[in-house]
């Protein structure tokens, strides 16, 4: 799975505004559809208070956070799966991302054009999901034909693989025909692996991003409740953001100024920080740290990675020549205050090749090449 998050939605729902605030790299944002044709890509530092604590503790020369890659994909419209509004090009961009953040407009503003001329989050979500489902349906139908041919003419091993593929696709096809998502199909792990190369869009993890106005941010919005109901039914997460507020916040010159502005309205952090962490989690990622006087760094791994895999993120030689990992957890440092006290408490551990790295581990690797 690609380690990035695609931002999708109908035109003029605030995708590019949110992307620009996220990355502080302005994306073209104009008040008409298809302003963004080529996808914008931005790398976002992952906000992490644990890294901040490590920096205060070790006072390193360098601080290096984990990052998340976001891709701003142009607005889809009804008929995109049939090529409407440059739909085929846009759908291809969505296939290349790991997870999807579906931005839904949850505010009224007559000065900002809506493609359907009304604010209706339920209809907007159905439109996007229907187009993604129909795009996947075309892929599934072509793959079924291929698998059927393989089952007839190939050897026994290939026939067996084709049978597994057909079993998975025949579970998915009826869902897509009804505009539902492929990830709702009851597939075995073997079946999921067998159809991975189809790169179905609706198999990708998705979260909803409700773009509200400032009133909606302060008082809540009935539109947001509509989105949350759909998300609950689908098992998806929801993040609520005021794109305009986040854009204004991003333009402030210093971090201190931004924090003061947030404090004035009773917030500890921006909605974009919450969005970045939600995307990171949705991609199945975790963080371990290396810490010392030279550098405190957050490293990104997949949840469930072993110690040698984590070492390989730093350098391939570390994985190839892995000997052991000296490990303690961030929570231990908070509780005991120093590595010396952690060792005295028996919380400093030596782990081998089978150790599964835990999010928040602080690790020193030993290797020999």
- Portion in strands: 15-25%
* Gyration radius over CA: 23 Å
Low-confidence stretches: 25-38
Number of helices: 15
Largest beta sheet: strand ordering: 2-4-1-5-6-7
The major β-sheet equals: 6 strands, mixed
Give a count of the beta strands, DSSP E runs of length 2 or more: 12
Summarize the structure.
The protein has 15 helices and 12 strands. By secondary structure, the protein is an alpha/beta fold.
Note the main attributes of this structure.
single chain; 369 residues; alpha/beta; 6-stranded mixed sheet; 15 helices; flat
Describe this structure in words.
With 369 residues, the chain is of the alpha/beta class. It is 44% helix and 19% strand. The chain contains 15 helices and twelve strands. The strands form three sheets. Strands 2-4-1-5-6-7 form a six-stranded mixed β-sheet, sandwiched between helices. Strands 3-9-8 form a three-stranded mixed β-sheet, sandwiched between helices. A three-stranded antiparallel β-sheet has the order 11-10-12. Helix 1 (15-23) runs parallel beside helix 9 (243-250) and helix 4 (121-153) packs antiparallel against helix 5 (156-177). The longest helix has 33 residues, at 121-153. The protein is flat and about 60 Å long. The two termini are 30 Å apart. The model is unreliable at 25-38 (pLDDT under 50).
């Amino acid at each position: 799975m690609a380690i990035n998050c695609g931002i999708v939605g109908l035109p003029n729902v605030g995708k590019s505004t949110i992307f620009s605030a996220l990355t502080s790299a302005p994306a073209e944002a104009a008040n008409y559809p298809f302003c963004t044709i080529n996808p914008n890509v931005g790398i976002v530092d992952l906000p992490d208070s644990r890294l901040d604590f490590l920096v205060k503790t070790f006072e390193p020369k360098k601080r290096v956070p984990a990052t998340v890659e976001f891709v701003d994909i142009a607005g889809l419209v009804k008929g995109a799966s049939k090529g409407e509004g440059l739909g085929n090009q846009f759908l291809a961009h969505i296939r290349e991302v790991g997870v999807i953040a579906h931005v839904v407009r949850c505010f009224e503003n007559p000065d900002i054009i809506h493609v359907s001329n009304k604010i209706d989050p339920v209809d907007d979500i159905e439109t996007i999901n229907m187009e993604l489902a129909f795009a996947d349906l075309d892929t599934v139908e072509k793959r079924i034909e291929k698998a059927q041919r393989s089952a007839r003419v190939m050897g026994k091993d290939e026939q067996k693989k084709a049978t597994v593929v057909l079993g998975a696709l025949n579970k998915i096809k009826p869902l897509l025909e009804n505009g539902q998502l492929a990830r709702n199909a009851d597939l075995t792990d073997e079946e999921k692996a067998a159809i991975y190369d189809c790169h179905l869009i609706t198999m990708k993890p998705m979260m909803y991003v409700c773009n509200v106005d400032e009133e909606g941010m302060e008082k809540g919005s009935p539109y947001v409740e509509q989105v949350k109901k759909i998300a609950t039914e689908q098992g998806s997460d929801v993040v609520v953001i005021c794109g305009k507020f986040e854009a204004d916040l991003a333009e402030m010159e210093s971090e201190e100024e931004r924090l003061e502005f947030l404090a004035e309205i009773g917030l500890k952090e921006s909605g974009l920080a919450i969005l970045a962490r939600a995307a990171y989690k949705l991609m199945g990622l975790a963080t371990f740290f290396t810490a010392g006087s030279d550098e405190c760094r957050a490293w990104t791994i997949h949840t469930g990675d072993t110690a040698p895999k984590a070492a390989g993120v730093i350098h391939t030689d570390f994985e190839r020549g892995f000997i052991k990992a000296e490990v303690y957890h961030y929570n231990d440092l908070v509780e005991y205050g120093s590595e010396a006290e952690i060792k005295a408490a028996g919380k400093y551990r030596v782990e081998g090749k089978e150790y599964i790295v835990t999010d928040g581990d602080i690790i020193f690797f030993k290797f020999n090449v």
